[in-house]
Amino acid sequence: MDKNIIDKVQNEFKNSDKIAVRELNLFFRKQLPNITDATISWYIHQLYKESVINRVGRGIYSLSDKLVFRPDISAKLIKLYKKVQKAFPFIEFCVSETSWLNSFMIHQQVRHRLIVEIEKDAVESVFRKISEINKHVYLNPNAEIYELYISDFDSIIIKTLTSQSPLKTIDGIKIPELEKILVDILSDVDLYAAQQDEKEYIYNEVYLRYNINMSKLIRYAKRRNRESQARNLMSNISALNNII
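Given the sequence above, the corresponding structure tokens read:
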């Protein structure tokens, strides 16, 4: 996109906490009187794509002054992802690891778990396949299994992927969006047992550093029956009180 346009957008909205779509429409019509609706939509999309603006709610943006979530994907996780992808090229799945949350926590965790989330019909097949090459693999474990058996480093947790989960791809590896991870902490309390005492701290640290799409977070929280908890945690961040 033309740097001149970017500079003008940043200057126009530098003192705005929120930017509504109608404000962007008015801005572009003022700059380019003959502009079409389609071209305005294209401009807004390009501003978002180039991280000039960030979507923080339905029809609401802000200037991007925070980081984009891009975790360090370990060699072990990449290897695991490629094994699953090669064996099951047509299934929907993503991978993550609990170590990604360490940067948001006071007490650092030394025990990490690799997580593979797969669409329901394929979980057992993937579990059997991964079990052929790693003995520390667990399928949808319950609290008792976590307590009794999952104490080793780099255990692999195979779990069902919630439909319409917010995912993204980094360097060819599909991972959860940060909004999904925040909600999963509330839902998968056994998997994220180490994070339970620091939920509030984690949410605050994430918000301070990264762009969070509230609509996406709440929509996914509804699917996991954790809307109330997510809203309560986010409402403690005063900067978001007028969004949720």
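Confidence is low (pLDDT under 50) at residues 238-244. Try to locate this feature in the token string yourself.
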